[in-house]
Amino acid sequence: MECNALVKPQQLAQLISELDDAPLRSVRDDAYVCDIPAQNDPGRKQLWIIPTDAKLGANPNLWIKTHQELLDEVIDRSIGYATIIFAGSLPAAVERRRVDVHRVSPDGTRQRHFQNIRIMSGPAHVWIDRLRIHDAEGYLNRTKREQQLKRWAGKHWHDEDEQSYIVPNLQTVQGSEETVAKKAQEQLLANRPSCPDSGFAIIYGQGGVGKTFFLSRVAHLLCRAAQQDLTASIPVFMALRGILHTDALETWLSHNGGEHLSLRQLTTLVRRGVVAPILDALDEVVKGEARKGGEEFLTHIFELAHAGTLRGVLA
Q1: Which option is the CATH number for 142-314: 3.30.750, 3.30.360, 3.40.50, 3.30.1370?
Q2: Which H or E element spans position 159?
Q3: Which residues of the chain are modeled with pLDDT < 50?
Q4: What is the helix (H) or strand (E) element at residue 201, kind and residue range?
């Protein structure tokens, strides 16, 4: 279930810009550039460079060699930390380089200094820099990543459940847009299921017919696929419990692995499709006094769906 915000350079650049609430600028069509104040070094800046040619993630040295002029332009002595982030899955691991940067000062003299640069993929950036799933040397900790994915989406399904699983008889709702509904049906029932390309697939059914059982399996399969593919959207299975409110999803995420991000940043990950929510049991929490909170929650997530590329399932 490939995430466009992780594999398409422009969408990756927009994601990073929104996460940092910082303006984005393009340089000679070679790359998108975004800089923010460095968190741990007042007076210095953190620089993100997102190349527009994702294919060169397979050969970062060539990109650096052929874009020296760009680096000379965007890196000055105010830059404390610089990272080149390629859309897609490459480079396969974080790389580090020390580059020679030249700039012409206002008086016309040529200045030279060395800059340490990290090079990484878009998915690695999300997991390492945003979710803080890394080892002591700053590389992606794949074991912890797999464990976190399992906590988010894979812990509700077991081998004995698979043995008793029967393919459900999902039917498209009369009056819905037939092509879209049919595609969503096929995506959810596939051996390697996926969420809609954008928006929510909504599953209706009476209590006890197996919606939770089915969603648990979908979440498990999405989790397994994401463990094998860094570019996949991150599935999150959330059983809606208690009293809902506008940012109930983001609050849940902040207490379950997203504690290094603000609620606004978590909203961005959901809106951009990086996090794919699989929401269950909505009908159990929109009754009586909880109805108003449920309506606020639904309004919020559907606004996110209309405003971005959110993808998920709601039962």
Answers
A1: 3.40.50
A2: helix 159-163
A3: none
A4: strand 199-202
